[in-house]
């Protein structure tokens, strides 16, 4: 028993020594990037899938739990694959050119995005839409910072908020099929289900009655 414990400690010391080697840093960063992508994807998707599934999806408890597990696995796997691909390509380009330049990041991410997130499915669509909204905000701020557009005299956020909500509700009312399914479900709950009730139970306690009254 003691011998196995000594062997384990020796193995642990060797692993820790390897992790400190600078020449292996790029390769080890790719591996840890894969790990962090998997963990972060699971942390982000699991609570979201849990809420959305129990709020808007029908079916047995087993079916709901299976749906949550599948969504969590897909998000976790895709993010892990993307980080692994991105960091691997980034390291390869830096090694080939002897230095890191901004285009390396763009090219590596483009290739990773095509390979990992190119499949048009609900999980990937949500991730891309999440990123797109933040890209638009980021590019707007960068354009002001670089002087490409003048600094607004007033905070433009109230106007942006008005236009976003005006557009999305117009689309929901008149072109609903153009919106992403989970957004349709959320808006149906908020703006259509609130029009229907039968008594106090489904007016205050529940969204919809489940009995046959």
UniProtKB/TrEMBL annotation:
The gene is Pxmp4. One of its GO terms (cellular component) is peroxisomal membrane. It comes from Cettia cetti. InterPro entries: Pmp4. This is PXMP4 protein. Coiled coil: none annotated. It comes from the Eukaryota.
